Amino acid sequence: MRELSSLSICHKTSNYSAYGYRYADIEITGLLGFNGELVFTPSGFYHLGNGHRIYNPRLMRFISADALSPFRQGGVNCYAYCLNDPVNSQDPSGRSRFKRAAVQVLAVNRFKKKLTSGKGNGSHLNALVNKEPENLINEMAEAGALMSAGSAFITLASDGRSLHDLPGPGFKHKFVFTRDKNFFIGSYSDGDLSHASIARYGQLGGGDSGEVISAGYISKSDGVFVLDNYSGHYQPPIERLVPPRDYLERLGMKIRLAE
Fold first, then answer.
1. CB 128 within 8 A of CB 122
2. Which of 216, 200, 219 has the alpha carbon at shortest distance from 208?
3. Phi and psi at residue 210, in whole multiples of 5°?
4. pLDDT by residue (tens digit) across 43-96?
5. Biggest CA-to-CA distance, the chain
6. What is the dihedral of CA 18, 78, 177, 158, to 10 degrees?
7. What DSSP element (H or E) covers 69?
8. pTM score
9. Cis, peptide link before residue 70, omega less than 30° from 0
10. Alpha carbon of residue 211 to chain centroid
């Protein structure tokens, strides 16, 4: 890598190994290191993930555990990044992991406002209250263990393909719809993902407000996605299914409300 001065004259040349180790014994003088990341000059470490993940290129590993580990949102493996699956997961907070939808939410931000504008978007509704807040820590621990084992996923439905890419037979799917117009889906084949833990993961991993205005289950029948309002944690009335239904229909989905 070459660092250039303001006059575009070569200022310094550095060589790195595949894991970011710098062979040269010359003292680091700039702020940029491997892959253009900011490097902490005295130690040569990289403070990644908003400073939550400290990476040592000499050891070729992170030397700081996930901030929410062990056994809670960060999962059993304190040093696992994105469930060791960076292709299909992301970690914008640097503290936990979050399943990526088929197309990243950033790709639809420019027209999301248009999709969610108008009546029926739920912005005027009061947030639903979690009726079992005392269980959230244990529920987050269970959710983290299930996701670490690969038997559960949390997906943000950001476009028309998102629902079609959900895990197939053997999985159940819960959803929460938030004031920020985010439709989070918790899919699991073993154990249970509570609606409250899905909302909390969406808040931690997706920068969501965490204000839930609808919750329930989503399933597919004869090519149509069916929403119901069963949630012991939030106990939403049936009319709370209207905002998520309208949102998904704007994404091109065929939606029916359970009777």
1. no
2. 200
3. 85, 5
4. 777 777 766 777 788 787 777 766 656 555 555 666 666 655 666 566 666 655
5. 71
6. 10
7. none
8. 0.58
9. yes
10. 16
